Amino acid sequence: MQSELTNIQRDIQKAAREFAEKEFDLDLALELERDGRFPKSIFEKACQLGFIGIDYPEEYGGQSFGLFENILVIEEFCRKDSGIGIALSLSDIASIIILKHGDESQKKNFLIPVTQGKAISTVALIGSSHEKNQEPIITKAEANTDGYVINRGKAWVVHGSLASTIVVLCERLGPAKPLALIVEMDWGGVNILGLKKMMGMRISSIREIAFDHVKVPKDHVIQSKNEGIDPLTTYCHVYRIKTSTQALGIAQGAFDQAVKHAKQREQFGRKICQFQGIQFMLAELYTLIEATRSLVYRVAHQYDANDPDVEKISSVAKLFATDAAVRATIDSIQIHGGVGLMREYPIERMLRDVKTIQNLEETNLVQKALIARNIIS
Amino acid sequence: MSIRLNEKQKNLIEKVRGIAQKIALRNREVDETMEFPWDIFNTFSENNILALPIPKNFGGGGAPSLTCCLVLEEIARSSPSSAHMLAGHWLGFTPLELFCNPSQKERYFPRLRSELAAFSLTEPAAGSDAGGVITEAKKDENHYLLNGTKIYCTQGHVANVITIFAKTDPVKGVRGLSAFIVEKGFPGFSIGKIEDQMGMRGTPAAELVLQDCLVPKQNLLGKEGDGFNIAMQTLDRTRPKDAAIAVGIAQGALDYTLDYAKTRFFIQEPLLKSQAVQFLIADIAISIEAARLLVYEAASLIDEGEVSTKHSAMAKCFATDVAMRVADQTIDILGVEGVSVDHPVEMFMRDAKLLQILEGTNQIQRLIISRSLLS
Question: Residue B265 contacts by C-beta under 8 Å, 6 or more apart in sequence?
Answer without folding.
Answer: A130, B271
